[in-house]
Amino acid sequence: MFKKTKLLPAFLLLSFLSNAQPIAPTSDQIKAMTSAWKGERSADGRPKVSDAILSRLKNISIEEAWGVLRNKGYQNQFEGDWILIHPDSAMTGRVVTAQYMPLRPDLQDLIKETGKKEGRNTAGGTNSWPIDVLTNGDVYVADGYGKIADGTLIGDNLGNSIYAKSKRGTIFYGSVRDVEGLSEIKGYNAWMKGSDPSYIQQMMLTSINHPIRIGRAIVLPGDVVLAKKYGTIFIPAHLVEDLVLTSEVTALRDEFGHQRLREGKYTPGEIDTKWTDAISKDFLKWINAYPGRLPMTKKELDDYLKERNY
Q: Could you say which residues bind Mg(2+) here (predicted)?
């Protein structure tokens, strides 16, 4: 009887290991999570928003992006109060998510065993696993549950690897170490809640490319992030293109309105309410003589304005 009792926990553990949840969802599971996206996808199933849209998104303000999302019912996509290595730089990219939790030895053993079965690199810490899946244009976004001391998810070695793979930086609801070394990686930037000289301990990776919480925001794999010194916006992939165009048109309307107010041609009340036909025609005339390069094509703008009644 004693032998059977001793063997039972081992049997249950082996059974649990053989049926353990994968570290990352399958491609089909990610597609189901992001089913509203109808365009190209990465090999892992994440939406692959075009580089051209990512480039245009960089010029959108946090307020404009937030306003569009809120009007569409997405009210939990912003997180602020970040520390940046390079405060004046902006970053856009396709999100790879990672979840960290306080260390629990039995669960960590299971995660390491699962990762080994999946062919993940077991030579170093599990905090290298999200980096292994990065591709060009990806942004590594991790929930480190705000841990600063002993919560440093990367140092400059991993930072170099991140930038080499993604040509992007990181967004950590947690901390980093070796900030001086990270700051010397040309093109790399980090949004973080703090930094500390300690190394990571008493915390563990639990998943990659599952939905995570970053402060007050919910983030899905394949979301597109707009990161600036004023905060981060996590945008569902299927909304990005419309958000960019809407924000670009709003910026043009603001530029036109500010100019006409300075000229004294219209009153604030006329600009801040629904425009008259005369103002709308004036705006279109101003657009046709726009002194700089429009951020969108003329066809995109014309099609957009046809569907709006300002």
A: 178
Ligand-binding site membership of 292 (annotated): no
> pLDDT higher for 1 or 294?
294
- Average confidence (pLDDT) over 41-70: 97
Identify the pLDDT of residue 21. 85
Q: Where are the beta strands (DSSP E) in 166-219?
A: 170-173, 175-176, 190-192, 194-195, 203-208, 212-214, 217-219
Distance from C-alpha of 117 to C-alpha of 36, rounded to nearest angstrom? 32
Q: What is the pTM of this model?
A: 0.89
DSSP secondary structure of 159-174 = HHHHHHHHSS-EEEES
Give the pLDDT band (50/70/90) at residue 38.
very high
* Domain residue spans of the chain: 27-235, 240-306
Whether 187 has a binding-site annotation, put simply, is no
On the 0-12 / 13-18 / 19+ scale of CB atoms within 10 A, 274 is exposed
Which sign, positive or negative, has the C-alpha torsion 18, 132, 30, 204? positive
| 158 belongs to an annotated ligand binding site | yes
Q: Place 309 in a pLDDT band, splitting at 50, 70 and 90.
A: low
Counts of helices then strands in the chain (DSSP H, E): 12, 13
Q: Is 56 annotated as a binding residue?
A: no
Domain 27-235: give its CATH code: 3.50.30.40
pLDDT at 18 over 60: no
Does 157 show up as a binding residue in the annotation?
Answer: yes
